[in-house]
Amino acid sequence: MKTSHASKPGGWIHWHNPEFPLRLGVSACLLGEKVRFDTGHARDRFVTDTLGQWFEFVPVCPEVEIGMGIPRPTIRLVKAEHGLRLVAPSTGEDFGETMTTFSEQRVNGLMAEDLDGFILKKGSPSCGMERVKVYHPNGMPTSAKAAGLFASALQRKWPTLPIEEDGRLHDKVLRENFIERVFCRNRWRLFAAQGSGRGGLVEFHTAHKLLIRAHNEAAYRRLGRIVASAGQLPDAELFSSYEREFQSAMKSKGTVKRHVNVLHHAMGYLKKKLDSVEKQELLTCIEDYRQGLLPLIVPLSLLRYNIRRHQISYLAGQLYFDPHPKELMLRNHA
Which residue, 90, 131, 135, 199, has most beta carbons within 10 Å? Predict the structure, then answer.
C-alpha cells in the first residue's frame, strides 16, 4: 500500500513500519552463541542488551557454517602469491578456497534477507572488517593487515550496506554514525517498497536534508541535483543513483563542526521568532557544544522546544532532530 510522508513529523518512529523491522546481520559469537574455536563466545552487551531492544538479528558464523566444527583449530590469514590463504597452523589445512566460495554464496543469500546493517567480530580471519593480522608461510607475521575472507566478500558485494565491527562500536562517534546509517537504510527500504514514486523521493530527501548536511555537505548538494533531475532520468536509474549517493554520504562521520553549521542553519529559521535573550541562550548553548562543554543533545533539545513552540513546519519535519530512539543515548556524550 502506498503512503505519503508529506504530513509526518520528523521523528524516526513516524517513518518506521513494523512490517519492515530493523534487521542486523551479526557475527554469532557476539550474540553469546558458543561458536568460537575454543567453545566460548564473545557476547557484546551493547549488541545484545541495547540494540536487541530495537533490532532483529541474523547470526552468521562462517567457520562453523563451512563445517569446521566446535572446538576447532585456530586459523590465520597467510600471504600467498595470489591473494590470501586461510590456514590452520596446527594441521597445515587450508580453508581459503572453501571459505571464499561459501562467502560469495552466503552474502548472496543475505542480500535477499533485506538487512539494514552488519556487525562483525574484530580481528577474526573470517569476520574481521579490517586490520586482521597476515602471516608469512613460515609463520612469521607480516606488516600487512587485511579483512577476513567473509568480511571482504560482504564489503565488496554489498557496498551500500552499513558495516561495523564490535571493537569500533566502543568509539561513540563511530557508534552513532553506524546506527544513524542503519536507521537511514531501513527508512530507504520502506520507501522503496512502498513505490512512492518521484514525489515520494522529494519527501524523503526533504526530511533528511539536515541529517545529510551534518554528515557531508558536498554529498548533500549532489543529492539535491539528483532529485532535481527526476524528470530527466528513468525511475530505476534515479532511485539507484540516489540510494548510492545517500548511503555514501552517511558514511561520513558527523563532526562537531558540521553539527554546529547545521545548528546555526536551523536557528536561522527562528531568528524572527526569538527575542535577544532567547537568541543568546541558544547561541551560547551551541558554542558550549562546539567547545566540548555540552553534548549535542542539549542544543538539539533547546532547538526542538522552540521549533514546537513557534510551529516551524520545515524544521518539525527534519529527521535530524530525532533520527533514532532516544533510549540509545547516542547524542548524549560531550
Answer: 135
| Nearest C-alpha neighbor of 315 from the set 334, 331, 333, 302 | 302
Average pLDDT for consecutive 10-residue bins of the chain (334 residues)?
A: 51 93 98 96 96 97 96 96 92 96 97 95 97 95 96 96 96 95 96 88 96 97 94 89 95 96 97 95 98 97 96 96 95 88
Calpha distance 318→208 (Å, rounded): 6
Mapped onto helix, strand or coil, the DSSP state of residue 85 is strand
Handedness of CA 161, 167, 168, 169 (dihedral sign): positive
CA 180 from centroid of its chain's CA atoms: 6
For the chain, which residues make up each domain, given as ranges? Answer: 21-170, 196-334
| Contact (CB, 8 A) for 44 and 29 | no
Q: How many residues does the chain have?
A: 334
What would the grid cell of residue 317 be? Answer: 519535519
- Which value, in Å, is the radius of gyration of the alpha carbons in the chain? 23
